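Changelog note: in this version the structure field was regenerated for every chain. One regenerated record is shown below for reference.
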Amino acid sequence: MFAYLEGNLTYKSPSLLNLDVNGVGYEINITLQTYSRIQSLDRCKLYIHLQVREDAWVLYGFENEEEKSTFRELLNISGVGAATARIILSSLTTDELQKAISSEDAKTLEKVKGIGAKTAQRILLELKGKVLKQNNDTGTTVLKHNTIQEDALIALINLGINKSMAENAFKKISNSDTLTVEELIKQALRAL
């Protein structure tokens, strides 16, 4: 519903701010990362996510689209709500989160308040197949999905198979380019 809001900051704290947009005041929840970028400003533009619940409509604001996109990806994970996603993005920058996901560093995620081992593994599993990449030319965020072989590799690793063993199994499969993820996983398991 809202792409962004731009206006004067009438109140700001590390977790909440009031933004006056042409005489209408919006109460917006923010992350510490956003707060650190706007704390010295009197006027700002925030990219908005609107969460509609039974009891309230809640606005979440982000200083850049990359953080907003990452927030939305976190919301798609079972067991991660808006409060948890906001805590994650307050504790880690989007770059730190990307590094933790790409290196499968569950310990970094577990250091975030409220994130246990199971939730950390779920975040790694569900976001590992997606790479959030900042496009330097336009400043927009692009989601890139892994190939079928990379998806199958992630699945095999999550089943407890060593990465190098799984990669070697893929080399033994002759028609891997034409298979679905499920077929590729089955054939790789046979080739182990």
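Spot check on this record: Residues 69-130 form a domain with the DNA polymerase; domain 1 fold (CATH 1.10.150.20). The beta strands are 4-12, 16-21, 24-30, 43-52, 57-62, 130-134, 141-145.
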